[in-house]
Amino acid sequence: MKGRAGIAMMALVVLFCLLTPMLTGDDPHLPDLGSALLPPGPEHWLGTDQLGRDLLTRTAVAGRTSLLVAFAIVAVTTALGTIAGAVAGLVGGVLDRLLRFAATVALALPGLTLALALAGVLRPGFLTVLIALVPLGWVNCGLVARTATRQVVSADHVLAVRAIGASPYYLLRRTIGPHIAGPVLTVATADLARTLVAVTSLSFLGIGLPPPDTDWGGMVSEAIPLLVAAPRLAIVPALALTVTALGVAFMADARHEVSGSDLHHG
Fold it and tell me: How many CB atoms lie within 10 A of CB 164?
């Protein structure tokens, strides 16, 4: 049930982000000071912001940016963590101890504070957000991949493939990889929700994309001076973020239940 609800919520969010700018026809970046802070109406369903830009269109475009940045970061951290964890789990010994030590150190560090420290010395932009979140973002996938690999590596079919001289690359790609893909994907889905919130938090603090581009965090940050006069400028992107993060969390929870059931039956 949660999985279906999460998929439905994410489908609606993606469709909203993709189709809204085409349906409204408004430029999300072009100011129109003569239309500043218009209330919701037939022409602008959610009204306009302080620069006269359509709030509905700008929320959709900002959501597109937020999702793309979060997906890109999770793709990088999942790839790094899975490769590092699988290799360490297969080889064992020093590599395994190094991975666990690195993961322990990374988990002990305050993630958002470190991200702010890294981003504070760099210019705002996508690359800065990537550099700020990737160094600690690989840990969850890395530990899960390492644990799953250690469980699979002693299975009879893996021992049989190793006995005939299969290379580590072959083992990781064809034998171990399919067995650890489920748990890793579950963790990656959960990481997507956390990464989306982290990206939004950095943007809220002024470390996201420079104007006129923005994401949901940047929109909330821009709306703070008008929080009393026009609270919808902050409520709309915050609500969009909440719905998206909740949808991803539902999907991750459903995948966790499926993975746990598969492991139990296996």
Answer: 6
Which has the closest alpha carbon to 262: 254, 173, 88? 254
**Is the Cβ–Cβ distance between 72 and 22 less than 8 Å?**
no
> Tokens 């580590």 appear where?
168
Q: φ, ψ for residue 54 (rounded to 5)?
A: -65, 125
Q: For the chain, what's the residue count?
A: 266
Measured on CA atoms in the order 198, 229, 35, 20, is the torsion positive or negative? positive
Digit-coded pLDDT (tens) for 24-48? 999 999 999 999 999 999 999 999 9
pLDDT given for residue 113 in this prediction:
77
Is the separation of the CB atoms in 92 and 147 below 8 Å?
no
* CA 166/CA 160 separation, integer angstroms: 9
**Vertex 170: Cα angle to 164 and 173 (nearest 5):** 140
For the chain, the domains span 66-216
